[in-house]
Structures are given as structure tokens and as C-alpha cells.
């Protein structure tokens, strides 16, 4: 790093070029730091459930006589913690697949309305179980957009999953999903009437593993990667993501995708 600084400083370059090179270097440093943090966070997230699996399985393997109730309880814990690791790894793989795919243009012709309907259908049972209603308001006759069907499905799944996880605490709650044309865009809004998000957290929500309340996220089956995946999919589709939230009133996630 130091050597390069000298080289830049001693070369008679126009000011603008010097500035560009310095900015570029600090951006690279930020990216390197983000990468280091990411690996540390991912390791930590996996180590916690793995330590539990090791602990429980050790006891089951070492103890001569394990009472049936204990064996069952530990077995269930091992299963749950291993599942949790699987969910984290699945999300990590999705994220890296979407990132690797960035330079290919989106291929499919996708009906966002169908994607939303299928996603809502998939979580309907969970919503009913929580006494939460998912209300769809999808503009009829919208043309398809260009995109990757699986990625867009994951985007909607993640937003709906969050609305259920954080916006559906008491029976009788309503999650609203609207899809409409807006100029040369299609605008998808997922709105809940849950607790909302403190303003200072909003700019960081799309960071990998960033959570407002880690315990609540984990208890609800969250990995902290959902919105990072949403942001990647939006970027890959040259769309826009906007998050609005009022504490105590709820949150709104708006995704705009280009119509053509
Ligand atoms: P997680 O798996 O933890 O839900 P996400 O990346 O999907 O991870 O979301 C990051 C954090 O943003 C969550 O942990 C939660 O604190 C907050 N969040 C996301 N969606 C909502 C929502 N609809 N209402 C309130 N908070 C939310």
C-alpha cells in the first residue's frame, strides 16, 4: 500500500486522475474489509449451531445409558441445529450464485404477478396458522419483465417471509402486496403493520448478516441474509429497492423493475 502511494504521489498526473486513483484505492479497501467481515460473520453463524450439534451428539455417544426422554430431546436439538446450518448454507449459496451471475443479462420473460401469486400460495398455510392475512392487489394485464424467474421468486419469498416474521405478531394482522405499472417500471410493494424498524438501522439492512434483533431473527428462522439476497437480485435486474418504516406502525419494501 505504502509503495503505491509514493508512486502515485511522485508521478506528475493531472489532479483529477490522482483523485480517481485514491478514491479507487479506498473503495478497494472497503471491499476487502467487507469480505473479511463476511467470512468472519459466516463462520460465526455456522459455528454456533455446529457447537450445539457436537455437544449433543457427544453426550449421546459417550453416555452409557441415556434415558429415552433425553435421547429424544437431544436428537431433536441435533436435527434443528443441523437444519439451521443447512438454511444458512443454502442462503450463502444463493447469494454467491446471484453474484456470479451478475454479468449475464436476465433471460426469461417473467410475469411478476404469477411469481407473487405462487410465493403467497407457498406461505399461505403459515400465514393462516398465525392468523395473518395476505392481501394481494395485482394490476391485471401487466406485461412480463425480463429477468430470472428463480431469483425473482426468491426476492418475493424473502420479502413475504420477513413480513410474516416481523410484521405478523398478533392474529388479525394484514400483509399487503401490491403490483402495478409505474411509468417504465413495475412497482412491487410488500407492506406490513408490525413493529417497524428504527430509522438508523434502515441503511444497513441489506448488509449480509445485519440484523436489528438477532435473537428474534434466529428464533423466527432468519439467517440475516434475506435482504442481502433481495438487494443482489434487484441490482442484477437493474431495479431499485426502497425501504420505508415507521416505528410502531410497520414497514414497506418497494421494488421497482424495468418494464422491458
Ligand atoms: P433475517 O433473516 O434476519 O430476517 P434479513 O436480511 O431478511 O434477515 O433482514 C435483516 C433484518 O431486517 C432482520 O433481522 C430484521 O431485524 C429487519 N427486518 C427485515 N424485514 C423486516 C420487517 N418487515 N419488519 C421489521 N423488521 C424487518
From TrEMBL:
Keyword ATP-binding found: no
Enzyme superclass (EC): transferase
Sections of the chain in a coiled coil: none
Annotated catalysed reactions: ATP + protein L-histidine = ADP + protein N-phospho-L-histidine
EC code: 2.7.13.3
InterPro entries reported in the protein's UniProt record: BphY/WalK/GraS-like, HATPase_C_sf, HATPase_dom, His_kinase_dom, HisK_dim/P_dom, HisK_dim/P_sf, Sig_transdc_His_kin-like_C
Pfam families: HATPase_c, HisKA
Alphabetical keyword list: Kinase, Phosphoprotein, Transferase, Two-component regulatory system
Ranges for domain Histidine kinase: 41-260
PROSITE patterns noted in UniProt: HIS_KIN
Source organism superkingdom: Bacteria
CDD domains: HATPase, HisKA
Protein name per its UniProtKB record: histidine kinase
Amino acid at each position: 500500500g505504502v509503495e503505491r502511494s509514493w508512486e502515485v504521489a511522485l508521478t506528475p498526473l493531472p489532479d483529477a486522475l490522482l483523485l480517481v486513483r485514491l478514491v479507487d484505492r479506498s473503495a478497494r479497501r472497503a471491499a476487502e474489509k467487507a469480505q473479511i467481515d463476511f467470512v468472519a460473520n459466516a463462520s460465526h453463524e455456522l459455528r454456533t449451531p455446529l457447537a450445539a450439534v457436537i455437544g449433543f451428539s457427544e453426550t449421546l455417544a459417550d453416555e452409557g445409558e441415556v434415558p429415552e426422554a433425553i435421547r429424544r430431546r437431544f436428537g431433536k436439538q441435533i436435527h434443528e441445529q443441523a437444519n439451521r446450518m443447512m438454511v444458512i448454507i443454502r442462503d450463502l449459496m444463493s447469494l454467491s450464485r446471484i453474484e456470479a451471475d451478475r454479468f449475464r443479462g436476465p433471460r426469461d420473460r417473467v410475469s411478476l404477478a404469477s411469481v407473487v401469486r405462487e410465493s403467497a400460495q407457498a406461505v399461505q398455510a403459515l400465514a393462516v396458522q398465525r392468523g395473518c392475512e395476505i392481501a394481494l392487489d395485482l394490476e391485471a394485464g401487466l406485461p412480463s419483465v425480463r429477468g430470472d424467474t428463480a431469483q425473482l421468486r426468491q426476492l418475493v419469498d424473502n420479502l413475504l417471509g420477513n413480513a410474516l416474521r416481523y410484521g405478523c405478531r398478533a392474529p388479525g394482522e394484514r400483509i399487503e402486496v401490491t403490483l402495478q405499472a409505474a411509468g417504465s417500471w413495475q412497482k412491487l410493494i410488500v407492506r406490513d403493520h408490525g413493529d417497524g424498524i428504527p430509522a438508523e438501522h434502515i441503511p444497513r439492512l441489506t448488509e449480509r448478516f445485519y440484523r436489528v434483533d438477532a435473537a428474534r431473527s434466529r428464533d423466527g428462522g432468519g439467517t440475516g441474509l434475506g435482504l442481502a439476497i433481495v438487494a443482489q437480485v434487484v441490482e442484477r435486474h437493474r431495479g431499485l429497492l426502497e425501504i420505508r418504516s415507521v416505528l410502531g406502525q410497520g414497514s414497506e419494501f418497494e421494488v421497482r423493475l424495468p418494464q422491458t
